[in-house]
Amino acid sequence: MSSDMASWTLPGADLARFAECALHCVEQPYPYVGHYLQWSDHDWQRPIDRHPAFGGSFDWHSSVHMHWSMARLRGHLSEGPLKVRVEARLAAALSIQAQEVELAYFESRSGKTFERPYGWAWFLMLHAELRRQSRLPAAGHAPWLERGVQATRPLAELLMRRLAEFLPKLTHPQRAGIHSNTAFAMLLVHSACSDDTAGVARELLEVMGRESLRFYGHDRQYPAHYEPSGSDFLSGGLVEALWMSRLLGDAFPAWWAEFQPAPHALANWSVPARPSDRTDGQLVHLDGLNLSRAWCLRGLAQALKGSPHDAATPLHDWALAHWQAAVPHVTGGDFVATNWMVSYALLAAWGEG
Predict the structure, then answer these.
(1) pLDDT tens, position by position, 300-314
(2) Rounded Cα gap, residues 193 and 204, in angstroms
């Protein structure tokens, strides 16, 4: 990584490196982890046959969000072979034919809860990024964009409906700092659906708002000193706080006053985590934790700006420390890390959308 990566900027050379990494990972078929409900011997398939769009990058959700990463990066790449390869990959994955197969799995009896809620949220982020880019003046030069919007819409709407049905059934939120985390999923979904005028999207946002107040509205003095767990790539407390800042708006500082950890516990969020083995797929999650903490801490600093809590805690400085600790390890390492961390670097640097 260049020395400029110590700041929040992403120079062109590093953007290209991120895009090259994402492209390489989504095109790598193995190793692959598939969490499938098998009903018989006949259900066994190669990943690429079951998921022609998202059958690489170690697992389905990583492939989805690495395609999101490429979609975000493509507009920042210089014209040349890399950009051509990235767009060709996106066009193939987002084709009608590939997306029909992806949809069919979710409609099967094995796919009802597949990738809930993490993969669902990332797919909605990918769909939203395609929608956003299809509205740009240059979209006419990339006809695959509009085709991609149309191709991904059926699965996007199915996942919106399923999430709206699921959240009221969830008696308690998932707070662990891993894929099942409820607040993280709602953060992404809110970003993805906030400008979607379809009725299914508006209904989902209403459900999320109501259920979030039930889940988190009365939380007090979050125990940050219990974080992190050994394989966290999210901070349960920080993603909850960032989500509530999006939901509550001007009312957020009052909620934060009750929620914020005690000073000795709050300081735990100031220190980046240190992975002991970056070739271990669970232990290396801590690099991702540093990136997601950087994203959350930056967002909270902005949400608390001008409030009585603004100068009380140097959240932005803490965010930068986490960024500096993690960003050198985003690319160039073991596949168990490189298959997913580009997306978290983009969250830290650019936010959700």
Answers:
(1) 999 999 888 776 679
(2) 8
Residue with tokens 């930068």: 320
Q: Which amino acid is located at 193 in the chain?
A: C
Instruction: Render pLDDT for 214-260 as a digit per residue (tens, 0 to 9).
Output: 999 999 999 999 999 999 999 999 999 999 999 999 999 999 999 99
How many structural domains does the chain have?
1
CATH number at residue 202: 1.50.10
The string of pLDDT tens digits covering residues 87-134 is 999 999 999 999 999 999 999 999 999 999 999 999 999 999 999 999
Query: Which residue segment(s) compose the domain that 318 sits in?
Result: 3-350
Whole-number Å distance between alpha carbons of 233 and 341: 10
Measured CA to CA, the distance from residue 316 to residue 167 in angstroms comes to 32
Among all chains, which residue has been given the structure tokens 């708006």? 249
Cα separations (Å) of 297 from 7, 217, 241, 285, 289? Answer: 15, 20, 10, 18, 12
What's the chain's length in residues?
353
Dihedral, CA of residue 318, residue 323, residue 324 and residue 325, to nearest 10 = 90
